[in-house]
């Protein structure tokens, strides 16, 4: 294409010069006609004779070599002979015909070149547009590349920060486990001191009675020893039986006043004991399958009953609540006054702990055996510090075995407390030493209890008991039900009860 355009350009450049030369030839001829030239007579020469005896007429011919440059003067054409005028006319017509042909060819070539120029111009414009678009695309690609580098750097920084946070959490968890071990040691020391105080209180009571006997001359047998070892529990008294049978290890807190009542065979003292408590009904019958079974057997009073689930190896003691219509509720958890610490390890939550006449946790294994011997429903009664009571009831309730970490299974909800337990449905039980929740850390450490935590809690009925409902910690570690009074308010009393479905 470029070669054709170059040749066409050379042709167009030669055409004006050719046309100029012809015009100058014509003009020079006309000028020569009107001008008188002085021609010197030529030297006579002898001409050869013709074969026919006549002298042949000689003709002159001229050849012009015209360079491709500008001509500044006229060009004259002189011809001699009889046909000089005819020759000039013939040359003029031939030149015009040639000029017409050349002009026609040049016009066709110009039209072709114009068409080529138009096409090439469109192509050039398209190339310009493509170059501009290419520059824009290059700028956009550079921008995207810079954004990608920024995201990669930010992700690397986030990974580094996450690794640092994980290390910090591990360090904090180790420290909390160390503190938990220390806390258990302090609990043992506290129990020892409570035993000592209990023994001293009983000893003081006996000394007071002995002094009264001496002064009233009613004791002829002498004084008792100054230090008397008194057991923490009185196995012969059926009035207050705090421990659950079957090795459940549920007992009252050390120093509980009901464990300090003197034996009935001691002489009565005129000094009133400060450890008097309301009487607790103890049903020494059974064992029964559950509290509904006991009620159907004719025992309708609320109190401590002997219960033996079908798959249990021995009976356990627990509280049966018959004050709620229609009664027959088996209490598996109870919070009333904060006298029992519920921040315990897995073994404690499995076997159970607390005071059956007050606050206690029945034990995951006992709850599992109870809930799987029949179809049970769950009733949770909540009470705030303004004496308002609400409830939440679930149509079914059961636990899976320890191999599944006592996973919770619930039915549908009804009540006026709001549903704050369904979010925990299907979750395994978590304690401070068994982390089975969905959170990266251990929810039991934050909420100070054991529960079927998710990530972490919408309810925390085994948390810390705060007097007045106001927290003294920055964590939501109180006894709360999120749908009732929110997570920043600690409830005063809670009861979890199960009963066979009618």
UniProtKB/TrEMBL annotation:
Residues 222-279 are annotated as: Disordered. Keywords: Disulfide bond, Glycoprotein, Secreted, Signal. Residues 1-34 form the signal peptide. Residues 250-259 have a biased composition (Basic and acidic residues). One of its GO terms (cellular component) is fibrinogen complex. GO terms for biological process: blood coagulation, common pathway; fibrinolysis; platelet aggregation; positive regulation of heterotypic cell-cell adhesion. Coiled coil: none annotated. It is found in: Secreted. SMART domains: FBG (SM00186). Pfam families: Fibrinogen_C. One of its GO terms (molecular function) is extracellular matrix structural constituent. Residues 282-502 form the Fibrinogen C-terminal domain. PANTHER family: FIBRINOGEN ALPHA CHAIN, FIBRINOGEN C-TERMINAL DOMAIN-CONTAINING PROTEIN. This is Angiopoietin like 1. The lineage of its organism: Eukaryota, Metazoa, Chordata, Craniata, Vertebrata.
């Amino acid at each position: 294409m470029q070669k054709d355009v170059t040749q066409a350009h050379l042709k167009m450049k030669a055409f004006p010069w050719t046309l100029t030369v012809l015009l100058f030839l014509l003009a020079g001829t006309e000028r020569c006609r009107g001008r008188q030239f002085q021609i010197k007579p030529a030297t006579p020469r002898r001409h050869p004779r013709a074969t026919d005896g006549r002298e042949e007429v000689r003709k002159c011919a001229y050849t012009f070599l015209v360079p491709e440059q500008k001509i500044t003067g006229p060009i004259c054409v002189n011809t001699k002979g009889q046909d000089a005028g005819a020759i000039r006319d013939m040359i003029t017509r031939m030149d015009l015909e040639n000029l017409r042909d050349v002009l026609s060819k040049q016009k066709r070539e110009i039209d072709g070149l114009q068409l080529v120029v138009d096409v090439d111009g469109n192509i050039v414009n398209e190339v310009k547009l493509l170059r501009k678009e290419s520059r824009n695309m290059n700028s956009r690609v550079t921008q995207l590349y810079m954004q990608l580098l920024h995201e990669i750097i930010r992700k690397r920084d986030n990974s580094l920060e996450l690794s640092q946070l994980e290390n910090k959490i591990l360090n904090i968890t180790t420290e909390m486990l160390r503190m938990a071990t220390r806390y258990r040691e302090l609990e043992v020391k506290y129990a020892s001191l409570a035993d000592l105080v209990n023994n001293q209180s009983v000893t003081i009571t006996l000394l007071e009675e002995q002094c009264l006997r001496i002064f009233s001359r009613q004791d002829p047998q002498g004084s008792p020893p100054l230090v008397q070892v008194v057991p923490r529990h009185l196995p012969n008294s059926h009035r207050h039986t705090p421990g659950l049978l079957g090795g459940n290890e549920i007992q009252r807190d050390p120093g509980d006043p009901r464990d300090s009542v003197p034996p009935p065979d001691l002489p009565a003292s005129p000094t009133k004991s400060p450890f008097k408590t309301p009487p607790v009904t103890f049903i020494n019958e059974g064992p029964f399958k559950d509290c509904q079974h006991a009620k159907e057997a004719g025992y309708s009073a609320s109190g401590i009953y002997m219960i033996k689930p079908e798959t249990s190896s021995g009976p356990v003691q627990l509280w049966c609540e018959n004050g709620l219509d229609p009664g027959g509720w088996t209490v598996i958890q109870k919070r009333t006054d904060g006298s029992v610490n519920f921040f315990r390890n897995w073994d404690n939550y499995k076997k159970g702990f607390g005071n059956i006449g007050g606050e206690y946790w029945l034990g995951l294994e006992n709850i599992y055996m109870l809930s799987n011997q029949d179809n049970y429903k769950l009733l949770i009664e909540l009470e705030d510090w303004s004496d308002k009571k609400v409830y939440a009831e679930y149509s079914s309730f059961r636990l899976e075995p320890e191999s599944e970490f006592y996973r919770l299974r619930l039915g549908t909800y009804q009540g006026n407390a709001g549903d704050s337990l369904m979010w925990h449905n299907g979750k395994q039980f978590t304690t401070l030493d068994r982390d089975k929740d969905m959170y990266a850390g251990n929810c039991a450490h934050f909420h100070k209890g054991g529960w079927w935590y998710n990530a972490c809690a919408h309810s925390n009925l085994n948390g810390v008991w705060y007097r007045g409902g106001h927290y003294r910690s920055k964590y939501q570690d109180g006894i709360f039900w999120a749908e009732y009074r929110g997570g920043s308010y600690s409830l005063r009393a809670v009861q979890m009860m199960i009963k066979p479905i009618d």
